Amino acid sequence: MAVVLAATGAAIFVLPLVGLLSRALGSDVWRAVSAPTVRTALWLSLVCSVSATWCSVVFGLPLAWVQARSEFPGRALLRGLTMLPIVLPPVVGGVALLFAFGRRGLLGLWLDQAFGVRLPFTTAGAVLAETFVAMPFFVLTVEGALRSMDRRLEDAARTLGAGRWTVLRRVTLPMIRPSLLAGAVLCWARALGEFGATITFAGNFPGRTQTIPLAVYLALETDPEAGIMLSMVLLVLSLGVLVALRHRWLGAL
Amino acid sequence: MSLDASVQVTLGALDLRVDLCVGDGEVVAVLGPNGAGKTTLLRALAGLLPLDGGAVALDGVVLDDVASGIFIPPEQRPIGVVFQDYLLFPHLTALDNVAFGLRCRARSQRESRERAHEWLRRVGLGDRATARPAELSGGQAQRVALARALAIEPRMLLLDEPLAALDASTRAEVRRELRRHLDAFHGIRLLVTHDPLEAIALANRIVIVEQGYVVQSGSPTEVTQQPRSSYVADLVGVNLLRGVAANTHVQIDGGGVLTVSDGGVGPVFAVIHPRAVALHRRPPEGTPRNVWKGAIASLDREGPRVRVQVHGVPPIVAEITPEAVAALRLDAGGEVWVSVKATEITTYPA
Fold this sequence. Notes:
The structure holds two protein chains of two kinds. Chain A has helices at residues 2-25, 29-34, 36-69, 75-87, 90-101, 108-115, 123-148, 152-159, 164-175, 177-192, 196-201, 212-222, 224-244, 246-249. By secondary structure, chain A is an all-alpha fold.
């Protein structure tokens, strides 16, 4: 009985992949990949996801540091809020972003009036949406590493004459390097696949905000070959992430 | 050259109040049980822990003074620390570990590496320069940690349980080596340990710290022969009683009176070696001046002898042979007579 249930469970994962693969093998891949919409979406996805990862590292590392190393009232609340996007439906995230950075949003209104900066329905908006959804993965991974590392190593470095920056650069960051990389990869993978928040906040404009997931969704209606092709790209990238992080999650595979 | 420290730190349940002066020619060991505040003291001296009160001066330079608000951060103190577990940087080679402090002191990379190599050679590890800490044995890691601390040419060397992480087979050899390096170091040398053997082997002055306070300070001989706390007495394995002397009589604090050769007048410690304590089934006759009755609390085999704990007034530990235990048919709970000659009791002012 248990074996049957387990097999059914596995089938739920495996069958869709088989379905996608069998369909992909029969299709004209090269025609699809050379289609301008596909290439535009691929390029845009790369730009957006890498930018979002970069933003997550730049802002997420200090955030992880503060959460791991300092004591202040409301820290638990801050940690909770940082984790919220992981469980929050991305669409809700997109709506929330609209009310913060939209043209009439809390900050958006000011940004527009003071600098003429408009985020919604721009590439920068897509990056922001992806950062919103993906950064918690980076922060969480790095915060855990900062907590679990032996802080006495930092003490040892200080007695050897290292100031705070030197300690960070030559001891702390090298010590948590595996987690920095894992967090960044995880964050990038999440950003790459982002759909809900992006389409809600940034819309679906080819060349501007139409990333691969959005293109897949649209292509299934108009150009199934391109949709399949793009799905395959995401599948291969996901597998790549899995292989890259296998030691972290799966032990020796 | 000297260290003059008055360290007051409150950390959780620990209330540390230690005044410490270490002179140039001395190697001082701070000895105490776990949780006595030894590591806290070391961290405070290194500047890794802020003082709640007191002051620290090294060679007359104030490093820390709570009253006047002076605090020199650890990276600017001329202090080398060998940490417990050594805390080598796992991502750096042995050479880069030793060169770390030199690099921080703005030496060029080439000069740092050359000097680090020289230090590795000095501790006998010239051929292990490219090894990562994970590839080093415990003894080798200890030597790298020592080289790393010495390479910055500190004015003071602090060692936290320098041999505790080693297994017994390598400890004696590493201890000899360490002694050699300590002798060669010109500066203040202070180590903390919970191992009396380590303290006696490495230091020429021992400071006993218990529950955050100094209870005794003196040469290894003084400390072991005239213990001033039950912790040291237990380490040395002797009976320590405290009382008030009136020439040949000592009224013990917990009850009982001992006859001694000459106890002077006033509060004293009385030390009785367990081997000087005789046990009898019946009240003994003869010369011993101190005879009292007690109940056997426990019998513990220790090497070729048996330690017998007797609950009496005063309580005492006797050390006798297994044959004697059998001949006297001693058993836990049984009654026994204790006798100690007056000449076997050492007294000194408390």
